[in-house]
């Protein structure tokens, strides 16, 4: 079962507050900054070593309930191929506040863990329902687009809706099909992020982790591997927990590449 206690939420926040970070959405070497330095971008992200040495986060990656949900959705034993813990800062232009798709895996399921409180107008996760796969319902919606803001056939629709920049069109065509997920710190949202989605703008720092499971072992970022911090050295406590866990193979992709 999922049980993110207030103690764990507090631990995770305090743990990362004292870690060096990356002045970017993902942990790229050239963007590394000391924790005392003020960020210039809209993001503060953290390396894999620090993430996997955070025991409450490691436990979530290996949580039986989470893995079971991922396995049922994917139809195969899941591979945890991407892990990213990051803060989104207010009064900054953030790329992920625009609707987009994640396309790096044939099929995926993502768990978003909120480490800070969110609400509908402050850091919520939004997804446009029905846009993650072809369906009769999706065809009906895009065919009823009288203004022809988007392609009316599904094949063209999926090909043309990968990148950013079409928020106004999506909001017009899918205004009745936007699902919003938010809540207190400790909330977990689940989504197939091939579907069109975004994070809403923030009024205060928003701290989240995404845990991405896939059906194939693809890396969950377009960043070159040479630009990513690669060294993982687990503490004794985290190493012992990993070795004793029956789902430790879920992490093989992350551990073996680094």
How would you sum up this structure, described in words?
The longest helix has 12 residues, at 6-17. The chain starts with 5 loop residues before the first helix and ends with a helix. The mean pLDDT is 92. A five-stranded antiparallel sheet has the order 3-4-10-5-8. It has a three-stranded antiparallel sheet with strand order 7-6-9, with no helix packed on it. Strands 1-2 form a two-stranded antiparallel sheet. With 258 residues, it is α+β, with helices and mostly antiparallel strands. It has helices at residues 6-17, 48-52, 55-61, 64-74, 136-143, 154-160, 167-173, 236-244, 252-257, and strands at residues 21-22, 32-33, 43-45, 79-88, 108-114, 125-128, 178-181, 188-191, 197-199, 206-214. It is built from nine helices and ten strands.
Summed up:
The chain is an alpha+beta fold and 258 residues long. 28% of the residues lie in helices and 19% in strands.
Question: What is the secondary structure topology, with strand pairs?
Answer:
Blueprint: H1 6-17, E1 21-22, E2 32-33, E3 43-45, H2 48-52, H3 55-61, H4 64-74, E4 79-88, E5 108-114, E6 125-128, H5 136-143, H6 154-160, H7 167-173, E7 178-181, E8 188-191, E9 197-199, E10 206-214, H8 236-244, H9 252-257
Antiparallel strand pairs: 1-2, 3-4, 4-10, 5-8, 5-10, 6-7, 6-9
């Amino acid at each position: 079962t999922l049980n993110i206690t207030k103690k764990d939420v507090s631990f995770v926040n305090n743990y990362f507050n004292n870690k060096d970070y990356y002045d970017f959405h993902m942990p790229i070497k050239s963007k590394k900054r000391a924790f005392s330095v003020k960020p210039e971008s809209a993001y503060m992200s953290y390396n894999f070593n620090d993430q996997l040495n955070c025991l409450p986060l490691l436990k979530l990656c290996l949580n039986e309930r989470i893995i079971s949900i991922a396995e049922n959705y994917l139809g195969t034993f899941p591979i945890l191929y991407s892990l990213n813990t990051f803060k989104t800062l207010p009064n900054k232009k953030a790329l992920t506040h625009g609707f987009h798709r994640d396309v790096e895996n044939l099929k995926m399921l993502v768990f978003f863990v909120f480490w800070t409180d969110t609400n509908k107008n402050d850091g919520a996760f939004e997804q446009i329902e029905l846009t993650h796969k072809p369906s009769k319902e999706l065809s009906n919606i895009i065919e009823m687009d009288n203004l022809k803001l988007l392609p009316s056939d599904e094949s063209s629709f999926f090909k043309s809706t990968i990148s950013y920049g079409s928020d106004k069109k999506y909001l017009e065509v899918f205004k009745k099909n936007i699902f919003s997920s938010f809540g207190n710190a400790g909330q977990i949202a689940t989504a197939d992020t091939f579907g069109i989605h975004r994070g809403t703008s923030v009024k205060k720092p928003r701290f989240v982790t995404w845990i991405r499971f896939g059906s194939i072992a693809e890396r969950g970022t377009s960043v070159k591997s040479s630009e990513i911090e690669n060294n993982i050295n687990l503490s004794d406590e985290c190493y012992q927990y990993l070795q004793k866990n029956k789902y430790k193979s879920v992490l093989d992709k992350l551990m073996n590449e680094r």
